[in-house]
Amino acid sequence: MSLVNQLIAAVFAVLIGLVAGTLFIMSDSSKNMLLTQLESHGQDTATHLGLYLAPYVADKDTATIEATVNAIFDSGFYQKIVIRSADNETLFETSTLPQSGKSVPDWFVSLVQLTPPSMSREISFQWRKVGSVLVQSRADYAYSQLWQGAQNTLILFVSLSLLSVLLLSTLIRYILSPLRGVEEQAQALAERQYIEQENIPKTRELKRVVLAMNSMVKRVQKMFAEQSLHIEELRKTAYQDNLTGLANQRSTMALLSDWLDNRQEFGPGCCIYLHVNDLQALNSALGEEEANNYLKHIGGTLSKLAMRFDPNIVGRLTGSDFAAILPTVDEELIKRELNALAAQLTTQSNFISPQDDGMPFHIAVTTFDTLASANLVMSDAKLAIQVAKKQSTALLLPDTFTGSTVASESWQQHVAKAIQNKNIFIQFQPVFSSHSTQDNPTILQRELLARILNKAGEPCSAGEFIHVVKSLNLISALDRAILEKAVIHLAEYPEGGPLTVNLSQQTIHEDGFSTWITQLLKQYAPGNRLNIEINETAALNDIEHIVWFRNLLRPTGVQFGVDNFGVHPSGFSYLYSVQPNYIKIDGSLSREVDTSAEDRFLISSLITAAHSLDIQVYAERVERNEQVQQLNLLKIDGTQGFLYGQPEALN
Question: Which segments constitute the GGDEF domain (predicted)?
């Protein structure tokens, strides 16, 4: 019971006690008053009878005495009348049983005992005592009056008590309303939300409590902000180029390797490699500030071009070399953008001393297919730059720009038909708890991987069909098909572990998707056995909508996670707003955790920050036991990767 309700109950109990006490006092007072009235009534009757019956008592005329007494007794106000002679001989006596009246309940009569007093009076005639009269009034009237008074008093006091309780409860709730705010602050703090009360109460004690709570909220929020800033600075130092803000060589190669070698979801694409000739001469000609602006401009232009594609990787490999890796080649768009970039750089090169080959920069474009490795892509790009330098050309394009990357019409039709018919082959990769042992493995969740069966009935990797799905605008249809298969599987196998489905930003934004998923979850009610993940880039690009979607899932019990965590340059302060149940650290950060002190420190900081918000942390792309051992030392909650085997088919 809340404090306010306890106070109201206490006040009500006091009022009940007050009513009971008042009723007792008033009843007792009324009882004494009524007994006095009965006594006076009996005494008056005895006096009048004594005066009237004096000569008849002296003559012992019993007939007259009986007629007179009966005439008075029949009025119903008397319980007993006795007439005695001087020698105490009973001349006449009449009585009736005590009654309390038909309107008075028996329990009230038993509770309130009324015994009317017997009043006597001597009878004198001609200056001598001739007898006595005894009169006892009946209690009917007294009981009726006492019962009526008790009823009226009870009704009045109950009404006043209820009104008082209502007014007092309103007043107490108003006075203690700041405590409700403190309670909401505490609950919000437990849910990783920071709320400050703006209305400060005037009551001294409550004011101190509210101010103390506001101060604590500010400190916790400041601690998290400082922790986030510290980790972000560390991440920038280790993985980001200080001048352009792009990924540095280490981060670029890690991301490229993760996409091409591990996920195999990038699909066919192209690599744009830009080399600035003789950077030292550039600094001498333009000055350090202008040269830096020149390099920033290059990096910014490549970033704008890459943002038109998803996913993309843009980085500065060395002081002179930049690279942008893009999926699915749009020949006209890339040619147009690169020609514009070359023209801009050529204009700026007019301020630079001529190079030996007459070119201040070179741009080379290479293409790759779904089977290409990260090392092969970068090796081909560097060879192409060498060719561009030998040919003294600013922009070198491949002879077969799109030949290996355009899907055949039959393959496009095959993929589209498979998605429309929901003929999706589902595999899964488990996430194992850090507390798992070889004898007792504990699976936290199974992440679902969508596969399209080729014409031979064999599952294809995502890289072989995902670009087709995007080009045909079927991402949302694919996501819906996987999600529907997941909830149906959970319904058919109620004893199975949780399943995880990745959704794209495009799907979440699709008209009608929120209604569709709400109905689906209501129909199958998977609860916390279903996890939905969003890529970190998608979360950062649209935080408000992601928060809305997260709140949409919260009442259903479905868990929410952020995939590929820790690589986006915007940092991770968004965790406070999104409040996921778990995050998955990107494989590019964990792949060298057993050999890199910088990676260990960064991951440790990320885990600490996430745990402070009650968020579970899992690591992706785990391939070696040494990685698991090191991650367990860093307090990771779970690990996922090829160390535990290849993805398996979902039965």
Answer: 267-400
